[in-house]
Amino acid sequence: MKRIVSIVFLFLFLFNVGGYYIVFVGLQYQASVRFSEKVDKEEINPEDIYHFKVPLTLPYQIADNGFEKASGLIEYRGAFYRLIKQRYANDTLHIVCVRDEAQEQLADQFTRYAKLSNDVPVSHENPNPMGKAQSLWLKMSKDFNSNQLLEILSPDFGYLKPWYASADESLLSRAEAVPTPPPKLTVG
Fold this sequence. Notes:
Elements: H1 2-40, E1 49-55, E2 68-69, E3 73-76, E4 79-89, E5 92-99, H2 101-118, H3 131-142
Antiparallel strand pairs: 1-5, 2-4, 3-4, 4-5
């Protein structure tokens, strides 16, 4: 009986430390699949479509082939948007997306749960002998947990980070082989 109780408490502790991250990622994946099905069935209301224009200068030319299908998630001013299509034209990245209320609710619930589980106040008015030990234990078990959603979302969801091409070595520092001998000097 003690073994069963200890296993139950161990699972409860592990879920408290990081298990809700796994649950959150699963719920997030489920919301993403539902949205993809909605896009494939063309059940999106045209009034819910947003068009973002992001100035983006690239050191090379890209052929403008019109809009291309895109997938991903963008957070802008606390609102989440799912990408539908994008195109790059005239130093501007045009992104067409739809606001995702399900992701906003999920992020809000996750943030509230993380704050509730991480920010346990220790009362200073009623000092008890376990207060310092409890505070130390909470710091040790929760230091790596964050209530920031951005740390949870993976790069697969398409955060917009412009990458620029650059050369790491200069032409002067390279050693090139010379295929012909040097010219002979004639003094005349």
